[in-house]
Design brief:
The protein is an alpha/beta fold. The protein is built from 14 helices and 11 strands. The protein is 38% helix and 13% strand.
């Protein structure tokens, strides 16, 4: 469409936020195939979060990155940021940030205008406003909301996984197989992640340990693999004591793309509303996703078909709280171990019908005798 341009894409967040932005990023790259695309994004704020670069590296959607200092109020730091943006002489700015109100929207639009960026997409209120809901109260997916921001550049079909896949290479897939084999996983396995950025989304240790105990008793020949941040490794070790078959704790041991390749060959993924859940969806692995009700139903559910989401509507739903101090997390605590076990069993029954692309991933990761 247009070449030799400099495009600035404004998207804050961590691993899951980056996953759901992939369709919109692909629309931008499709519209500007020869342009230099810079992602204007925040650095991770904790060891539980991964930067966008860790996921996007090598995909060809983004050429470089500018760090956004979230929460900085130092006037000189902000002035340096302004001049960094202005010196780059971007021609187009694309707003893919979360909805933070009209004031923030106008402020950001003004900043990019002062930086000399003439074309600004996604800054009109009708493009950027908060989520839309259907008659049943289901929210539009965050990925769909972001696509509204870039609608004038093109459309994406979210039923087609190619819009949000991770373009895993043969080398990445084969490397995952080698690491799994070294860890004693050389057959079918379930994948788990118990990490989450906010305590409201945590299903809690006693539930995870009981889940592993029950599933291990029901499927003693399956392997069990956990992915996540280094800070989750001790919790995972506690859970894995009850798994009778092959088991592997990869928390803190793999990059986001490394975790994605591990998830690509799993029969089923089980986890919270988290970055690993979005990775699993992006590689086509059927998910059992355990959600609190802090966000609207549908907004952050795993992309794609065939997932099972356990979401209990309660009177205090949509609180948006990072920590639940009054209601004792009754939304996510209401999800029982029996519910999760039943969902995993259903997914295992269906997993033989996975798509051709998913089978290809398994063929490159798992030994020939268990493909």
């Amino acid at each position: 469409m247009i070449g030799a341009q400099r495009i600035l894409v404004y998207r804050l967040g961590s691993l899951g936020d980056t996953c759901v932005a992939l369709p919109a990023l692909r629309i931008v790259r499709q519209a500007y195939p020869e342009a230099r695309v810079t992602l204007f994004t925040n650095l991770p704020v904790s060891e539980k979060t991964a930067p966008a670069v860790a996921l996007l590296e090598g995909m060809g959607l983004v050429d470089d990155y500018l760090a956004y200092p979230v929460g900085v109020r130092d006037i000189w730091a902000l002035a340096r940021l302004f001049w960094r943006l202005r010196r780059r002489r971007f021609q187009v700015a694309v707003n893919l940030t979360a909805w933070r109100g009209e004031f923030a929207l106008r402020r950001d639009a003004r900043l990019f205008r002062l930086c000399g960026i003439r074309r600004r997409l996604g800054f009109k209120e009708e493009e950027a406003r908060a989520l839309r809901f259907d008659a049943a109260g289901q929210a539009e997916h965050e990925a769909k909301r972001l696509l509204r921001r870039v609608a004038e550049l093109g459309q994406a079909d979210l039923a087609d996984q190619r819009w949000y896949n991770l373009d895993l290479t043969t080398e990445e897939l084969q490397r995952a197989g080698i690491e799994l084999n070294k860890g004693g996983i050389n057959g079918d396995y379930l994948a788990f992640s118990l990490g989450t950025k906010v305590s409201t989304n945590d299903w809690e240790q006693q539930n995870w340990r009981q889940l592993i105990r029950v599933l291990g008793g029901a499927y003693p020949r399956l392997g069990c693999v956990f992915v996540g941040a280094a800070g989750e490794a001790e919790r995972v070790r506690d859970c894995l004591e009850d798994w009778p078959g092959p088991k592997l704790n990869l928390c803190g041991q793999t990059s986001p793309r490394g975790s994605a390749t591990t998830l690509a060959a799993a029969r089923v993924f089980v986890g919270h509303d988290s970055g690993p859940m979005h990775l699993a969806a992006a590689v086509g692995t059927p998910c059992v996703a355990i959600f609190s009700a802090r966000n609207p139903p549908g907004q952050w559910f795993p992309l794609g078909q065939g997932h099972e989401v356990l979401y209990h509507k309660v009177s205090c739903a949509l609180c948006g709280l990072d920590e639940c101090l009054v209601e004792q997390k009754r939304c996510i605590r209401g999800v029982t171990v029996d519910e999760v076990v039943a969902a995993v069993m259903r997914q295992l029954e269906r997993s033989e019908e996975r798509s051709a692309s998913d089978r290809r991933n398994r063929q490159q990761i798992l030994p020939e005798n268990v493909r």
